[in-house]
Amino acid sequence: MTMTKRKVVVTRQLIDEAQILLDAKREELEVVQWQSEKPCDRSWLLDNAKDATGILVMLSDKVDEELLEAAGSQLKAIASFSVGTDHVDRDALRKRKIRLGYTPTCLTDAVADLTIMLILMAQRRGGESIAKVMKGEWPQMPWHPLLMTGPQIRGSTVGFLGFGRIAQASLQRLLPFGIKRVIYLTSKPGQLAKEDHFGLIKDCAIPIEPAQSADRLAKESDVVVVGCALTSSTKHLVSTDFFNKMKKLAVIVNIARGPVIDTDALVKALDEEQIFGAGLDVIENEPNIQADHPILKQPRCVLVPHIGSATIETREQMAMESVKNLLAGLTGEPMVNEVELSSVTETPKY
Ligand SMILES: O=CC(=O)O
């Protein structure tokens, strides 16, 4: 008797061991995989999702009613190759009892490392300095005492908008630089003791205090780190009002999701020297940022193309965990990391 193979859809080629792990299952699974390096076409995904039991997606693939309808009622699991899950309609999954796997732990170090890079780039005018040298302008700007000066990290108050694992790992890296104080805003203040990932909240050499409001965080921080999830309550949480309250020598770094910062407001704040600088790993409407985008005209803004988790080790691990989550979702076994979908999803408030 021939058994019909369960179908899984994978929206990207995977790396080394993860691809081997997936390929090893081809005897029992029909694996349909997008073949290009580019994000998969929506129409390809909708066509191929039909009859799938599991789908492994990237953060660029929307998981919504349309996709779930196209897949059909046999769909058991979505495995997302990401920590963020704002591309997934959680309520639509919960309604259908579809499990959701993600990769929140293995990318913490890589993203926290990039956070430090962006803070230093923004304070020390890294992007602006490199651009000048590359344009051959160094001969016109010989060394002088005020050349390319920016604020120093030692003594800074760092304000974390979102104080989860990545923010706390960033704080761990910032402590040896001699920062003086931390303030934070979190959607889950009651859970911080339980989510003290590195023991810093319980026991830190410098004060760590709740900011109480976004206004206060804006007013008191020398460095603002945006590390919160994108929800309806965090979209444009950082806008003109926020920038107007920031210190003139403060910098802002976004390693979360672009739409948390209103880009037009950021351009204006930089243009009017309302703030000192910005370091962005993410931006609204990425990756469609053309060379004439106004943010690219801002010398004090350094923008990198969403590379927070882009270390070889981390991407290999994300791929492995995503495949493991996908396979566990098919068999009902525990995932490496699974989003808790059992209760109604409340939008966290800031
Ligand atoms: O932004 C990256 C991720 O969510 O993994």
TrEMBL record:
Domain spans labelled D-isomer specific 2-hydroxyacid dehydrogenase NAD-binding: 116-308
CC annotations in GO: cytosol
Superkingdom of origin organism: Eukaryota
Domain D-isomer specific 2-hydroxyacid dehydrogenase catalytic as annotated: residue spans: 8-339
Keyword annotations of the record: Oxidoreductase
Molecular function, one GO term: hydroxypyruvate reductase [NAD(P)H] activity
Keyword Oxidoreductase: yes
Assigned protein family: Belongs to the D-isomer specific 2-hydroxyacid dehydrogenase family.
Name recorded for this polypeptide: Glyoxylate reductase
